[in-house]
Design a protein that fits this description.
With 316 residues, the protein is an all-alpha fold. Helices cover 76% and strands 3% of the residues. Strands 2-1-3 form a 3-stranded mixed β-sheet.
Length: 316
Amino acid sequence: MMNEGNESAGATFVLLGFSEFPHLQAPLFLVFLAIYTVTVVGNLGMIGIIRVNPKLHTPMYFFLGHLSFLDFFYSSVVTPKLLEILIVKDRTISFKGCLIQFFFACALVLAEMLMLAVMAYDRFVAVCNPLLYTVAMSPKLCALLVAGTYIWGGLCSLTLTCSLLELSYCGHNVINHYGCEYSAVLSVSCSDTYFSQMVMLVISTFSEVCSLLIIFTSYVFIVVTIIRMPSTGGLRRKAFSTCASHLTAITIFHGDILLLYCLPNSKSSRLFVKVATVFYSIVIPMLNPLIYSLRNKDVKETIRKLIHTKLLSHSV
């Protein structure tokens, strides 16, 4: 067992990426570089906007700031390696580097999954109990909820990473993916992967079901409350507008995750798996700040003020 561990520790993986399309390597590099640039600017900009505007120092924007941090961090874990293998011939990644990438990527995805559920609970309290909102969503509770998402993501990811460490890797270590995705790493192991697959199934299913259950329950109560509101005074419209951005983000994120893990495990679906993974690991982190900023009056107002202040400072 010790020899197997030592062999695995010295193993080197080759990431195929999108090598089946050699003529698209340069265009894909430019597309992903542009997406990553927008992701970094958008998410760091969102964090900055929330920090500089006192009006945005509320539980909703506290959670949104952490969602932006997760999106920025997750994209930064995955995208640079993808950009590298698109332009260099050496597409290798060390065993240690592969596990580090997987650990952070997995922890951040699971944390984001629960963060969206926490944000749904926050919207439930805001719409259904508006008078008690600031009391119910106290700074201490908000901090505990955020800490819980990070701790859960870290513990689950550590468990899955340890399950990969228990396997041995030998022979043809070619990963048909652009990153160290769990099933792709399992496919190059020469050990029995049944236990590892079961661990992944239990953790991913439990996390997904819990997240969707919290979201579904929260929005059932939100919809019932909105229906009971008087149609005059624009209360219904205002209540719905506070949830629209969050619902859009949830639909895109969970829709892609469910589609990805409902696919049959076959060779014909591997390209689709890579494309779907690109969507939730690279495209969604770019879309989230756009979704929240384009539909949010307070965020747009802060951006306008910052641009106006910047222009005035340059003209003086």
